[in-house]
Each structure stands twice: as structure tokens, then as C-alpha cells.
Write a structure and sequence with these properties.
Layout (H helix, E strand, L loop, with lengths): L2 E4 L2 E4 L8 E4 L4 E4 L5 E6 L10 H19 L3 E6 L8 H8 L3 H18 L15 H13 L3 E4 L2 E4 L15 H10 L15 E5 L16 E2 L1 H13 L5 E5 L3 H16 L7 E4 L2 E3 L2 E2 L10 H7 L2 H8 L8 E3 L3 H18 L6 H12 L4 H16 L8 H11 L8
Parallel strand pairs: 5-6, 5-11, 11-12, 13-15
Antiparallel strand pairs: 1-2, 3-4, 7-8, 8-9, 9-10, 13-14
Helix pairs in contact: 2-3, 4-6, 4-7, 6-7, 9-10, 10-12, 10-13, 11-12, 11-13, 12-13
This protein binds zinc ion.
């Protein structure tokens, strides 16, 4: 079989023209992901008003797996993950707690960073905050204004979707689906002042106790979608290789980002769009409003953080799936098998496992398959199979490919 080198790794060429394939939402198919040496990746971050739950962890671990595989192939990945520190979720929560919203954001960001570090995710190169990006946000709205894409009524500035022929192309959703999601996800489709129910807010007046900035459209604060368009451009200044987030961001958030950036900056926002499925618990999608959240920090009190990673790897990123309480024990058992297998050392030749893990990741990030390949080697070592003294080291390397680090034993 022919081989070709990239970075320090030589991979077989067979099924694919390049190695990493991902499902691109905008193309509705699995496609080769072929960035240059440096990969520009923007993943929508959190609104820091509550602790990291498994839905967040599952999304961010998806991109972490991709980053690790790209690094393994010799790429350098520049990840930017924003912080939405002024929006309709954080402001009421700060009001309820009687503290400043920036104080709440700082405390929750610190907890989020702790959780992400504990889960061994790669730190982003930058974490731009909406409150520190007001200038580029206003500048982008002005660009849209100059081209006739906005209108202002009663101090609220909307994006006029009728001026954007490609609006709806990312999601591919029908108009009534878009309207339903807009209503559910922070839009204002029933506000009769809008020209079109799908128009979305770029700038709005602030309530008395909310932060407010001066702008050419009146005093106020930005809408949610415009923030990511402005912050990704402010950081990269060119088309992203990949834009990510949960599937609940496809519409309206990413659809809005895409048209704003294309019309405002005259550039394609991202070459690829990749979205991670939703996590349910007790029969419904994990959500703050339902209160059915499972927190990373709670699980970590009784289980190894590696167990959380391994438990989440039991599901493909594109699936919506449900968390069950026993999943964490299964993850813990898998982690202990890997740890014990590494310590035992002698076992089967580990090369097929390493190849298998890489092939699984290249195949649209098939985490369950990668997890099974690792587990199979651990079980074989523990069963006393094979005489290769490098088996344990190979097992350690395979686990590290998916971010599961084994403490020195
Ligand atoms: Zn975003």
C-alpha cells in the first residue's frame, strides 16, 4: 500500500484522498478536511452564567479530538473560543444573584477553565469577550448599514434578511422551521416591528441596570450573533478553516453569523461547518430551564476525569444521545483497564491499535470505534496475550491520541 508523509506520521493512502474526513453541515455530507499547516478554528464558547455540564463537555471534547488528530498529522491548530459575557442569559442571572454581570462572568469562566483543564482539552489561543469587542462589533454593523442590510426602529437595529439571498443556505431549513427555532433560541419573530419574522437583532437598548455603550445606532448593547462575526474576523482577518459549535447553534446563530460576515466583510466566513449533537438526561435535552444538568465538577468528585472523557467517547459527535448514570462507571472501568494495561507492559503488538485509532478518527471522528480499539488492546494485555514488551507504551500512546493521559505508574 502506498504511503505519504505529513508531519512525523506516515499514513496509508487507500480509502481517502486525505486523512481527516468530517461531516460538513453546509454541504450535508462527509467531506475531506484539507486545511494548510496552520488550522484556523473558531468554536462558539459559553455564556458564563452556570457551571460546565456534560452537554458543553461533549461539544468541546469533539473539537479537542479533532485538534489532537490534526496535531498528530503535523498541523498547528489555532483555536479561538469566544465568551458571550453580555446577553439575555447572563444579565438576569447576575440580577438574581445581586452581583455585577462581569463578576459573575469572571467566576464562571474560572470554573469553566478548571473543568476544561481537568478534562485535558487543548487551551484556545484566544478567548475574545463580547464586552471587550464592542468596537469591531459596531464597525461591522456600520459596514452592513452602508450596504443597506439593516434598519432601526425604536432604538432596536435589525438585520434585514430580505437583503441576504443566501440566508437559510447553511441550515437548509424550511421557513417555518427557521421561525420556530428563532422563537425558541432568542429571536423575536413575533415582534411586529420587524419587517420579516426571521430578521434578527444587531443592536438593542439596554435595560437600566444593564451595560450600555454608545453607538451610531443609539446607546445599547450588541445582539448575540453579531459578536461572533466581529470577534472571529478581529482575530483571524481571513476565512476560517472550520467553524464549530452545538447543533442548536446552526440556526439562527450560525446562519446569522454567516450572512453578516459575508456581506459585511466580503469574505466567506468558514470553509467548513461542523456541529456536535445534543446530550439528553432523564429523557430530555440537558438544559438549564429543565434543571436536568449533570456537571463535570460533580462527576470528578468521585471519578477520574479520564473516565468522563472515555464515557463521552461512547457516542459519535453527530448523534443526539442520552446520558445514563451508569455511563461514568463504565468510563472508569475502561480507564482502569488502560492504566493497568500500561503498567503491565507486555502484550500484543500495539501497532494495529495505533493505526486503528487514527483510522477511526479520520473517519468523521469515530470516537466509539477509537475507544473500542484502545479497550481491546488493554483487555488483551490484561488477559496475558502476546509477548511484545512495547505493548504498554503503545497503549499509552493510543490513549493519548484521544486525550486520555495515563498518570505515571
Ligand atoms: Zn458564536
Amino acid at each position: 500500500m502506498a504511503t505519504r508523509p505529513i508531519g512525523g506520521y506516515t499514513a496509508p493512502v487507500g480509502r481517502y484522498s486525505s486523512w481527516v474526513h468530517i461531516f460538513d453541515t453546509s454541504q450535508s455530507m462527509v467531506v475531506p478536511f484539507e486545511p494548510g499547516k496552520t488550522v484556523r478554528m473558531y468554536v462558539c464558547g459559553i455564556t458564563p452564567y452556570d457551571s460546565t455540564h456534560l452537554g458543553h463537555a461533549s461539544t468541546y471534547l469533539t473539537y479537542d479530538l479533532l485538534i489532537r488528530r490534526l496535531e498528530d498529522l503535523g498541523h498547528e491548530v489555532e483555536l479561538v473560543r469566544n465568551v458571550t459575557d453580555v446577553d439575555d442569559s447572563i444579565l438576569p442571572k447576575a440580577r438574581e444573584l445581586g452581583i455585577d454581570f462581569l463578576e459573575l462572568a469572571a467566576a464562571e469562566m474560572a470554573r469553566f477553565h478548571n473543568d476544561m483543564d481537568m478534562l485535558n482539552t487543548r487551551a484556545p489561543a484566544a478567548e475574545p469577550r463580547a464586552t471587550e469587542s464592542i468596537e469591531p462589533i459596531i464597525e461591522l454593523i456600520e459596514r452592513l448599514d452602508q450596504q443597506g442590510h439593516i434598519y432601526t426602529i425604536d432604538g432596536i437595529t435589525w438585520f434585514d434578511v430580505a437583503t441576504a439571498p443566501t440566508f437559510g443556505r447553511l441550515s437548509g431549513y424550511a421557513e417555518d422551521t427557521m421561525a420556530a427555532f428563532a422563537a425558541e433560541r432568542g429571536g423575536t419573530p413575533t415582534d411586529l416591528r420587524q419587517r420579516n419574522p426571521l430578521d434578527f437583532i444587531l443592536w438593542q437598548p439596554s435595560a437600566d441596570d444593564e451595560p450600555s455603550w454608545d453607538s451610531p445606532f443609539g446607546p445599547g448593547r450588541p445582539g448575540w450573533h453579531i459578536e461572533c462575526s466581529a470577534m472571529s474576523w478581529a482575530h483571524f482577518g481571513q476565512t476560517l478553516d472550520l467553524h464549530g459549535g452545538g447543533t442548536d447553534l446552526i440556526f439562527p446563530h450560525h446562519e446569522a453569523e454567516k450572512v453578516q460576515s459575508e456581506l459585511g466583510y466580503g469574505h466567506t466566513l468558514a470553509h467548513h461547518w461542523m456541529h456536535a449533537g445534543m446530550v439528553a438526561y432523564q429523557g430530555s435535552k440537558m438544559s438549564k430551564s429543565l434543571g436536568n444538568l449533570v456537571f463535570v465538577s460533580e462527576l470528578a468528585k468521585t471519578h477520574a476525569p479520564q473516565a468522563i472523557r472515555l464515557a463521552l467517547m461512547g457516542h459519535h459527535y453527530r448523534d443526539d444521545w442520552e446520558w445514563f448514570d451508569g455511563d461514568i462507571d463504565d468510563g472508569q472501568e475502561r480507564f482502569e483497564r488502560i492504566r493497568d494495561g500500561v503498567a503491565r507492559g507486555t502484550g500484543p503488538d500495539p501497532q494495529p491499535t495505533l493505526t486503528g485509532v487514527r483510522a477511526a478518527l479520520d473517519d468523521d471522528l469515530d470516537a466509539p470505534r477509537a475507544r473500542e480499539a484502545i479497550d481491546k488492546l488493554a483487555l488483551a494485555i490484561l488477559a496475558g496475550e502476546g509477548t511484545d514488551p512495547s505493548s504498554g507504551d503503545g497503549l499509552r500512546e493510543a490513549a493519548e491520541l484521544v486525550g486520555v493521559n495515563i498518570d505515571p505508574v
